[in-house]
């Protein structure tokens, strides 16, 4: 029988695959994309102060991009926004091989930083509007962006007495106005790109169990390289990219009973979570959560094509 409860010391002792560890240097990217020009304040006709900053992108040299703070945004918030990993990664994506500025058909002219939500000392959410012009038509393409960065989610399947169960969380999701049944998930807390470590930590926080890293399967690694090995749940308005993982284990029935209805989460952060365990065969009908449905789809296709590693 494979035990899924492991010592947390085992987690920190393992080395993650290179593809899962980000090699991007925030300092280098900021230097690459920004001129050594100080912030400046321009007085408008109404005598209100507007913070502005200019950057130059390698894909459109000679066409500086003006970044402007919306009214009410403080100097420190504005600085934090344009220096944040969220904003720098967005700029990097624009100029990547598959980026929308890569072939020269479009140009970025202006960015309005509208809002910043701080998670402690770092930016958690960033809201801005980008003016990207299609050169062929001269029209601006839709450019409202809610940036929250990369995240992970884990599909946990536990087999007990011939039945496979999925382990989910149920918690308040204020944007939807509902309680939502979903996979254990969370945002990456830093720029290191530690998707596997974050996945394990989120399961520990939201479910209260330790997973064996050696038995984690990166489901999004089965996608084509052009996808970046991530999924976008809402690409029309949000930059969030999610790495989906799979964990499979065998447990006694009493473990299923203990997990059902268990209250977890970091209460100091307002996380009021209940664990729900459901038969896997019914899962796809029971949740509106896109992470769950995407994970189920990739899992089933990978299993059909024989891509999943054999369980120990």
TrEMBL record:
Span of domain Nudix hydrolase? 147-300
Q: Which Pfam families match?
A: NUDIX
Q: Which UniProt keywords apply?
A: Hydrolase
Q: Which InterPro entries match?
A: NUDIX_hydrolase-like_dom_sf, NUDIX_hydrolase_dom
Query: Per its Swiss-Prot or TrEMBL entry, what cofactor is needed?
Result: Mg(2+)
The biological process GO terms on file are: nucleoside phosphate metabolic process; ribose phosphate metabolic process
Can the keyword Cytoplasm be found in this entry's annotation? no
Under the GO molecular function aspect, what terms does this record hold?
Answer: ADP-glucose pyrophosphohydrolase activity; ADP-ribose pyrophosphohydrolase activity
Output the superkingdom of the source species. Eukaryota
Q: What protein name is recorded for this chain?
A: Nudix hydrolase 14, chloroplastic
Protein species of origin: Durio zibethinus
**Gene this chain is encoded by:** LOC111305872
């Amino acid at each position: 029988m494979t035990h899924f409860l492991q010592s947390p010391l085992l987690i920190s002792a393992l080395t993650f695959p290179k593809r899962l560890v980000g090699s991007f240097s925030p300092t280098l990217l900021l230097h690459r994309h920004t001129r050594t020009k100080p912030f400046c304040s321009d007085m408008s006709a109404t005598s209100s102060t507007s913070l502005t900053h200019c950057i130059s992108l390698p894909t459109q040299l000679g066409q500086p991009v003006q970044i402007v703070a919306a009214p009410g945004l403080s100097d420190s918030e504005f600085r934090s926004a344009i220096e944040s990993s969220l904003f720098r990664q967005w700029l990097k994506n624009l100029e990547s091989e598959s980026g929308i500025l890569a072939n020269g058909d479009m140009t970025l002219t202006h960015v309005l930083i509208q809002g910043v939500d701080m998670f402690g000392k770092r930016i958690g959410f960033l809201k801005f509007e980008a003016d990207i012009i299609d050169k062929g038509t001269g029209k601006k393409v839709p450019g409202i962006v809610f940036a929250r960065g990369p995240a992970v989610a884990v599909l946990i399947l536990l087999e007990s007495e011939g039945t496979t169960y999925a382990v989910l969380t149920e918690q308040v999701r204020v944007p939807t106005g509902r309680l939502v049944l979903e996979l254990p998930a969370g945002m990456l807390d830093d720029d290191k790109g530690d998707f596997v470590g974050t996945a394990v930590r989120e399961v520990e926080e939201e479910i209260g169990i330790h997973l064996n890293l050696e038995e984690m399967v990166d489901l999004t690694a089965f996608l084509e390289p052009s996808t970046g090995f991530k999924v976008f749940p809402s690409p029309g308005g949000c930059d969030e990219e999610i790495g989906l993982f799979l964990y499979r284990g065998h447990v006694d029935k009493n473990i299923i009973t203990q997990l059902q209805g268990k209250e977890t989460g970091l209460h100091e952060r307002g996380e009021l979570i209940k664990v729900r365990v459901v038969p896997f065969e019914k899962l796809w009908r029971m949740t509106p959560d896109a992470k769950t449905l995407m994970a189920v789809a990739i899992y089933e296709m990978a299993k059909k094509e024989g891509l999943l590693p054999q369980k120990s």
